[in-house]
Amino acid sequence: MKRYTIRLTLSVVLLMLMMNSCKKGFLDVVPDNVSTIDHAFSNRNEAEKFLFTCYDGLPREGHPEMNAGMNTGDELWIYWPMPTGEDYASLSPYNIARGLQNKDEPELNYWDGFDGRSMWHGIRNCNIFLENIDKVKDLEPYMKDRWVAEVKFLKAYFHWYLFRMYGPIPIVDKNLPISASPEEVKVSRQPADSVVNYIVNLLDQAAAGEENVGLPDKILNLSTELGRITKPAALAIKARVLVTAASPLFNGNPDFGSLKNLDGKALFNTTYDQKKWEKAVEACRVAVLAAKNAGANLYRFNSATTTVDEATKIEMSIRNAVCEKWNTELIWGTTTKPNDTWTLQLYAAPQLEQNVANSGLKGQLAPTLKMAELFYTENGVPITEDKTWDYANRFQLRTSTAADVGIQNGYQSVSLHFDREPRFYADMAFDGSKWFMENGNFNIQAKSGQYSGKKQSRIYSVTGYYTKKLVNWEMVASATNITVERYPWPVMRLGDLYLLYAEALNETDNRPQALEYLNLIRDRAGLKSVESSWTSFSKNPGKYADKNGLRDIIQQERLIEMAFEGSRFWDLRRWKKAGELLNQPVYGWDVIRSDYADYNRRVLLFNQSFNSPRDYFWPIKDNSIRVNQNLVQNPGW
Prior knowledge:
Elements: H1 34-40, H2 44-56, E1 76-77, H3 92-97, H4 119-132, H5 141-166, H6 182-185, H7 192-207, H8 231-246, H9 275-293, H10 310-323, E2 330-334, H11 340-348, E3 366-367, H12 369-374, E4 397-399, E5 412-414, H13 422-427, E6 428-430, E7 434-437, E8 440-443, E9 465-467, E10 476-477, E11 482-483, E12 489-493, H14 494-507, H15 511-524, H16 530-537, H17 547-561, H18 568-574, H19 578-581, E13 585-589, H20 596-599, E14 602-607, H21 622-627
Antiparallel strand pairs: 1-3, 2-12, 4-5, 6-9, 7-8, 10-11, 13-14
Helix pairs in contact: 2-4, 4-5, 5-7, 7-8, 8-9, 8-14, 9-14, 14-15, 14-17, 15-17
């Protein structure tokens, strides 16, 4: 997309004018140069550039340090301290993970501006577009309807992004006129339920209309329009919003009952409402149907040029559901910065070949030991529940044989790495694991002195694990060059939507249908059904028949299926489990050791802490509170 560059003084909503000053803040409501706005909507071509400017305000979710859910929690870890140089683009997510969020200069501050993006700025551009699009004389009505629907979606998404971070936020439906008084500009936060209703209403407007009226059901012009919004994308994001709103963080949560505006208006409804789950389940049903009607289906690997065995086929079905660009599972992939997934893959991939070293392969995006323990056994149940799997001795060394899937023959590794489900071997690599690529099979050897392991004080996996899931299988590295297949970041894919639907179905007591969608995900992952797996192998065989038990199963299934995609961070929050799981030690292997026994020794990397309930939401910058006295700070900050 081309970007329309327009120089405006931006101030709108929250960082407004000081009472006795005419100096404008970051989010100004009205442009100083009205003629520039007139030019931006003088014809179809100029208006389209402004449309792309609205898209350009989206967060760079494909970049590991700009995606607020990726390096901020407990699924990935990094060496510390981080030296200046090419190791990172921003320390903000790592600081949050280490408990260093603050209200003076908040990390990942998408409220005031981070990575050159403020969500309020994005909202402001959307309002400018909607207020001026009628001025364009040479724009076909059907195209105008589509563009308006796209911008309403983007406006909803910017509000949603802030809501998920900050909780109750102001609603900015229109840009205030230049004649607005200082008091009018000092807006207040709106109750959480009101914000959700506003976002959902915008998404309903965006998705309205019959087939191919307004938003298209699918992108037909593949050469120029991939990444733009479709009806299934709008409906799927609506489903995500409503599932979040129905979850414990926002549904009957007493922890934020004291959060009120200065006029006493409560910003959280502390009374549980089952109807929120009913709305969520209907939104998921409609979104699933729309996605299916548009041709979406769970990705299955089927290469015309490569023949693989069944285990590899399952692994590639898992990996390529994320990494194969514009595959059939993708509902919305963002291309805000196409090079972001290029960076992501270099962060994730270690050295794959013994005699080919390229420092561009950093391997520093390191899954934690906690994530290795999350995945099921080969029998499709948690390692703590499988009555045939030796959980107590999981850290004991074991020598592999040719029958062991995912591990090099004759290699020693901990028992934790044996007899695990396909997603474990598809998502993660470790010392002794295998790594399949289009140009061959590679063996990961990561002890000190080995080609995949730590060789210096930087650019290495601090845990001994590597994020295989995020590396496209077409990557090829030589000593002087790396060829990387960029792909759109999957903001929403069908597997994600199925799991949201299963969760909502269980909460509305439709367990049979919840299991149906859960088992579709498991089947693609090479696992038997929940019913079969729990009945045959779990110490708690009837767990799935109970609402609470199935909730636990669905949540673990989601954490596994969506691992390393920036979902876990938000899921733990909306389930109110972050206070427990982010208050645990972070472990890895002793990566500076060179022999099997010493290397495969669990070492403490960090004692993570989560201040509950404070850390469930970002702080608003203190200066913003001083500038706009109608804003109230989140509790604990």
